[in-house]
Amino acid sequence: MPKLGLGTLDRAAPERIAPAVAAAIEVGYRLIDTAASYGVEWQVGEGVAGSGIDRAELFITTKLWISDYGYEQALRACELSLRKLGLDYVDLYLLHWPVPLDFEGTVASFRAAEKLLDDGRVRAIGVSNFGPKHLENLLERTQIRPAVNQIELHPFFAQRELRDANERYGIVSQSWSPIGGVYAKGTSARASPLDHPVILEAAGKYGRTPAQIVLRWHIQHGLSAIPKSVRPERIAENFEIFGFELTADDMAAIDALDTGVRAGPDPDQVDTKMFT
Question: Residue 29 catalytic?
Fold first, then answer.
């Protein structure tokens, strides 16, 4: 799985997604991340199809939404996602959230993902937003270890404990909202890491943008990051993070920005009514 990908959440203007995907692939991205709940799988598929890049060179992720949890429902939902994407398979299929109040449904959905893996409809399976206890409970009741746990992760919410748990289980940590908070609530959402003096100082030191500094921090921590953008110039800029390296002192300074405050929903509080 590539270390850097393009996120495709843009409910305000989904028509911008296909050109964004095409622009990302043109500058070198090979990981494209989407989800059934984003409502843009058609557009992602259009961007992929128009890229001219061989399918085998691309890594496409999509996610099962919680309203489709359950064994049979999950199987049907994956087939619908594949049809929308115009693909025979996806490289990674994730459960979008744990649902603690219906963990039986969560487990059944992951067992469906195991079946999809066995059938070749997906090449790898994983989870998103699972905490240590959710992972432990899932691993006790399923056969295949999740390949990836995609979580909110940025300098203001570094998730050290969860990253350690993922590492113990052999699960890759992947960062959504890698540059900063995306919701208009919470400490980490009101202020952006990109405006913090530590990030600004590093940007000046390395001759890079604040976003490039933050994304480089993810890469040097061994994380996979999926920043989202629909602007071709920003998409290209975010990809230009492999030609420099942050010093240990600069990494430590960014590590120290962690507030422990999440911007997105608390996975322990998620249920099927939460997003309706």
Answer: no
